[in-house]
Design goal:
heterodimer, A: alpha+beta, 5 helices, 34% strand, globular, B: alpha+beta, Cathepsin B, Chain A, eight-stranded antiparallel beta sheet, 27% helix
Amino acid sequence: MPLLTETPPKGIEKVLNATVSELVGHGAIALGTRSRAEVSMPIRVHNLGADAIAAGKGLGAAQPTGWFSTLTTDGEVRGTIELVPLKPARKGVAAPDGVRFGGFTTGPLQRALARTIEAATKSTASSKVQIAVLRVPALYLLALWLHDEGGDRLVPVPPSPPPLKAGESYPAERALASLAEAAKAVLQGDEARN
Amino acid sequence: MPRRSTSRSAAPARTARRANARPTELSDVPIARRYVTYKYRWRLIDIRRLIGSRRCSGLSVEHQQQTQWCWAAVSNSVSHFYDAGSTWTQCAIVNAELGQTTCCTNGSSSACNQPWYLDRALTRVGCLLSWASGTLTFATVKSLINSTRPPCARQGWSGGGGHFMAIVCYFEGLLGLLAGAGSTAKRLRISDPWYGDSVVDYDVFVSGYQGTGSWTHSYRTQP
């Protein structure tokens, strides 16, 4: 059984089509006229703040922020398309269902994410595992969030913040606890610093 | 079908369902399946490049050498953008700003791998024109890039912490309308010392960069 992800929202394929067209149109993606491009199944992305980690709140405090799809051309990873929820028409009104373009990111981190997903796919071939992506930007952590009957596990994408090692699978509670001190240090900074 | 274990932490699908406020179908899509395949369509799409405008400054921010050195990577890249003969390096800027002498040989030490202020680092390399809290309008970003003065920005993360990057290109036009942007078709290319280069929707860069970032400070640069 392969890795499984939450069913993407309706209409996401149309937005992906338009996004790829736009990126090629802008020149953000350079392609040969006979290139074959593929977009992977969108995976849910969640963000977790340093304050939640410092307070020991765990994955229960993570917020879903969008969807990731990997764009490959002729088998080469070109980057990650991020789709985010639609904006409300005006303040005080609920946002409509659906997604829109959020960003397209290239670079070694995106290639590492694709490799880590591929490795997780192979290692979980015989079991049912839900997959999502977890971001902790304040601590420079990008990780796969795997969930099965045994609980939640995190697999950091390289480069990962110490003491976590990239590619290793950690019980989520333990991984986040190991980052608590770093998270507390982040909270001591003032507003104009990184 | 995997469902929640007895663990108290939230599963990916569970938090998603809470946010959408409507039931979602769980765990039924294998990710190995290719979602969309494109083939032999690019010659037609290239025509659309004529619709809208785009401009790049030529600045590219190098990767930060330590986890806390985004301020050093951005200021060093700006320095070399304006002066190809600049002798600054990331670690030299860190040494100068933090009053250290060992950051070029032991950059990961706690004395060297520290967060800092981009305005001070840009001042150190002689490239800061001005800085202020808040965002820049898309029109201002266009104007700065058109005059080859790429601005830099700080993103503050929800829950604490922040990060620096440069805005190096803009794209504007009808193409963005196709990708669900509504009335907004404004894109920025961000050169980020950690996440890499990205094309982002302007509104997402103002609020929502990397999921939870907010554009908190802006830095105008000069040769």
